[in-house]
Amino acid sequence: MGITGIHPTAGLTTGDADEAAMKRALAARAADTYVLGSDEKIGTASRYGVLALDAVTAIIADVADADPTARELTAQGVTLLHTR
């Protein structure tokens, strides 16, 4: 699932209300939900919430382990699969 924002407190977000609703419905019916996010999406939040961080299996991102937001997400129990 593509997301426009991956934020430690706001969770997973997007800029469109209908898109957020559709992604929630898809995730509710999936056995596992993986989120794909580039480094510029880590630490940002868009207007509409999609899912809480604990509602996904893992986040696949090209963010470095040393990134402060990546460390915060990991400390919250989020599984980050790095592409770097």
Write a brief caption for the model.
This is DeoR-like transcriptional repressor C-terminal sensor domain-containing protein. The protein is of the alpha/beta class.
Description:
With 84 residues, this protein is an alpha/beta fold. It has one domain. Helix content is 25%, strand content 26%. It is built from two helices and six strands, in the order ββαβββαβ. It has a three-stranded antiparallel β-sheet. It has a three-stranded parallel β-sheet with strand order 3-5-6, with helices on one face. It is globular. The two termini are 19 Å apart. 26% of the residues are buried. The model has no long low-confidence stretch (mean pLDDT 94). This is DeoR-like transcriptional repressor C-terminal sensor domain-containing protein. Pfam families: DeoRC. InterPro entries: DeoR-like_C (IPR014036), NagB/RpiA_transferase-like (IPR037171).
